[in-house]
Amino acid sequence: MTNFNSKNTILSVRGLKKSFNDEHVLQGIDFMANKGEIVSIIGRSGCGKTTFLRCLNCLNILNEGEITIGEISLSSNDFSGQKNVDDYKKSDSLDNYLKDSMHFITNEQLQLKVHSIRQKVGFLFQNLNLFPHLSVLDNVMLPLKLVLDYKIDKARIEANELLKKVGMEKFADRDSSQISGGQAQRVAIARALAVKPDIMLYDEPTSALDPELVLEFIEIVRNLKHEGMTQIIVTHSLGLARNVSDSVAFMDKGIIVERANPQSLFDAPKDSRTKDYISKLLLN
Amino acid sequence: MKIILIISLLFLSFNDILANELRWAADAEGNAPYIFQDPLTPDHLMGFEIDFINELSNILDRPSKFVQNQWDGLIPGLYRGDYDIAVNGLEITEDRKSAILFSEPYYITFARIVTLKNKPDFNSLSDLRNLKAGCLKNSLAERLLSSEPSVKTMSYEGEVNAFEDLKNGRLDAVLVDEPIAIYYASWNPEMKMTGQPVGKIYYGIALRNEDYTLLNDMNKAISLMKKSGILREVLERWNLWNDYMAEYCGDHTESVIEPDKYNYYIETQIKELSFEERIIRYLSFMPMIARAALMTVQLSVLSMMLAVVLGLFIAIVRLYAPVPISSLAVAYVEFMRGTPLLIQLFFIFYALPSIGVMLSPFLAAILGLGLNYAAYESENYRAGFNSVPRGQMEAALALGLTRKQALRHVVLPQAFRIVLPPITNDFISLLKDSSLVSVITLIELTKLYNQLSSTYFDYIGTGILISIVYLLLGFPFVKLSRNLERRLSDVVK
């Protein structure tokens, strides 16, 4: 907690608030992450962990506060004048399904900003969202071709490199719907890495994995750390948080209650809410 | 780009008309003796009105050009400028005179009662009291019968159906113009013409209201044909010379001319065909069927292309554009599928020229069918888009794709697989709906069926033949779509 300095800080969030209709999901989040740091975020379901990640990747509009990623700053003021229609929970009706946060952004500068933030931030969805109509290789090639404007040959070489990195190079020609859950996760990671993000966000990455596969995931995360990747992991898994994190943040009711290195947080939590949650977690 | 090229070519060919040509219109849908297909060489049209026009064009020294149009559309087509005159048993009536000019009559006739041989003779309309009588729509016969309220009257689109109903007992008598009676009943062993001539009917050449110069030419030519005996010769060869015409032409001399055309027609009707002859007849239809099938396929494929592209656009606007614009798309869909295609076609073909938009029949047909089907296709697309999970779009955006890229490369390919079967379905339906374009002068398969079946009174044989052609036309497209579907679903499990 002491060694935050502006040189090393790659992500800083100040006063982030977010609500869907009358539901105040995030109630003022302050958060920082250094380059190469691995931060786990734990907390009960519904405490706002996932929404926090989605805001970092501009999948939801922020109501208040500011997010700085590298040199890019996105503040809630940027969205003034834009219709706030990102209530994805509300908009599950069929016709509205694509009317997400970016739908009514008419301001071109804002669009560019959002676009560049998304390139700096990779996102691993809980259900992965591989593109089922594309092969494993094509899933990884798509962002290379469309976002980085690579020519096909270069994109193919690069995509194969990325697949090798996650140990999936042998599955390049498979249909993305014909691989197992653990394999699909690694492909999704390779795909997210394609646009060379500085930060990776993982939404409950191990919730559907066998214990052995969790180890494989941890290995990938550690390798990425060696390359200097900043990683934020939303998880319910005590083991994962304890084993890979540089620090762990506990969230409750839309705020970050406590943040410390894994050992202190799990063994000597300061706040009573943290204590309560961790004691229940240990019973599992 | 290709479509634009085709469209501009259509315009060119349409405007490429010889200035001197006398373009005349009629409906060749089995209207013996007016204009109909030669029963022995069905590719060739014949009829007393064709002979009349040929003599007319000789006198005027203007080559004649026949334009096919649906009977109901003959007068609107005149004002579209597709042709200069309409000649097709058009009776000179006060109603019609308010809309068009009529030449002096080129033929005068009357209505005639036709009934079955085993029925009593009906001398006049009053003998039909409490009986059922058939007639043609918008004919003198219909007006006469409506003034006899005790006669139960049924109006028909075509005389053939009226005679069919007479034979199968739905009617006791049919009241028709005498030429029709002569050509459908006089030689028929089951039927007889009975009673006195009823009323008086004048057939005139229809012209546009302002066309007085042409009217003058027409009247001069008709007067010349009356005096020179040319008109009489034409009519006698068709066995249509009558007392009214003798009076009109001032020519009461005995007839010396053989009704060779009439005899030719009757011979073809009386003759029973052997199986082989029937097959040979069907084979003789083939060139016409090929042409009509080509028309049907061209219309369907081109209008479906328009519908599929425009439908996609409408669906995207409806789903992804901001509210005021997306509701325009909703309005378009509701309007186009909520109003009859037939009326839309009429509107595009006959109403648009009045605001200066003059489309060739082919282009009007493609536009009419395409705009209409685009509404249905957009709904298919919408269903397809909505069936792609929301997370797919989010994942694409999270990777840094733009919204457009995400739609194009992630959502659309997945939606397309779902949309393919209903689009194929609509295409098959469009193949058959394309028959509606016969109202705007095009001859496609169904129109050809109507022409052929009423020329030969062979509804079943011709019907089966044309149905098979429709099936064969649709089949390759069904097959193509199945293959494509299988390929796509191999990928998406």
What distinguishing features does this structure have?
heterodimer; A: 284 residues; alpha/beta; 6-stranded mixed β-sheet; 4-stranded antiparallel β-sheet; 9 helices; 10 strands; 23% strand; B: 493 residues; 5-stranded mixed β-sheet; 19 helices; 59% helix; elongated
Summarize the structure.
The complex is a heterodimer of chains A (284) and B (493). With 284 residues, chain A is of the alpha/beta class.
The H-and-E topology of chain A, N to C, reads as: EEEHEEHEHHHEHEHEEHH
Distance between the termini of chain A: 29 Å
What is the CA-based Rg of chain B, rounded? 27 Å
Count of extended strands of chain B = 12
Total DSSP helices of chain A = 9
Profile the largest sheet of chain B.
5 strands, mixed
Structure, explained:
- The complex is a heterodimer of chains A (284) and B (493).
- Chain A has 284 residues and is of the alpha/beta class.
- Helix content of chain A is 35%, strand content 23%.
- Chain A has a six-stranded mixed beta sheet, with helices on both faces.
- In chain A, α6 links the parallel β7 and β8.
- In chain A, α3 packs across α4, α3 runs parallel beside α5 and α4 crosses α5.
- The radius of gyration of chain A is 19 Å and the shape is globular.
- About 6% of the residues of chain A have low confidence.
- Chain B has 493 residues and is of the alpha/beta class.
- In chain B, 59% of the residues lie in helices and 12% in strands.
- Chain B has 19 helices and twelve strands.
- In chain B, the strands form three sheets. A five-stranded mixed beta sheet of chain B has the order 4-1-5-12-6, sandwiched between helices. In chain B, strands 9-8-10-7-11 form a five-stranded mixed beta sheet, sandwiched between helices. A two-stranded antiparallel sheet of chain B has the order 2-3.
- The relative contact order of chain B is 0.10.
- At the A-B interface, α2 and α3 of A face α16, α17 and α19 of B.
